[in-house]
Amino acid sequence: MKSYSYTPRGVCSRNISFEIEDGKLHNVKFLGGCHGNLLAIGKLVEGADARKTAELLKNNICGSKGTSCADQLSKAIIQALSEE
């Protein structure tokens, strides 16, 4: 299982960490941000297909920020998959 760490931009969360094994997401964790919502996202995507999750979360925005923690997770996953 390979671990990844991503520094999100334009959101309250300061770090996103996760693992990918056999194309599936595991242990998605956010540092900072809206704790309850981000904890829920981590639970919902546990074991999910990484590519499908990235597409699902892509371009979700939070207020007028133009991005969101979910969108930033999408970017993190896409970056991680490009490194594999």
Please state the overall shape, judged from the principal axes of the Cα atoms: globular
Radius of gyration: 11 Å
Largest sheet: 3 strands, antiparallel
Q: What is the mean pLDDT?
A: 97
Structural category is alpha+beta
Give the strand order of the largest sheet, numbering strands 1, 2, ... along the chain. Answer: 1-2-3
Helix content: 40-55%
- Flag low-confidence runs: none
Terminal-residue CA separation: 12 Å
Number of helices: 3
What's the total count of β strands? 3
Quaternary organization: single chain
List SSEs in N-to-C order.
Answer: EEEHHH
Proportion in β-strands? 15-25%
Descriptive account of the structure:
The model has no long low-confidence stretch (mean pLDDT 97). The chain is 40% helix and 24% strand. The chain has a three-stranded antiparallel β-sheet. The termini are close together. The protein contains three helices and three strands, in the order E-E-E-H-H-H. It has helices at residues 35-45, 50-57, 69-83, and strands at 2-6, 15-21, 24-31. It has 84 residues and is of the alpha+beta class.
Fold blueprint:
Elements: E1 2-6, E2 15-21, E3 24-31, H1 35-45, H2 50-57, H3 69-83
Antiparallel strand pairs: 1-2, 2-3
Helix pairs in contact: 2-3
Note the main attributes of this structure.
84 residues; alpha+beta; three-stranded antiparallel beta sheet; 3 helices; 3 strands; 24% strand
Short account of what is shown:
The chain has three helices and three strands, in the order βββααα. With 84 residues, it is α+β, with helices and mostly antiparallel strands.
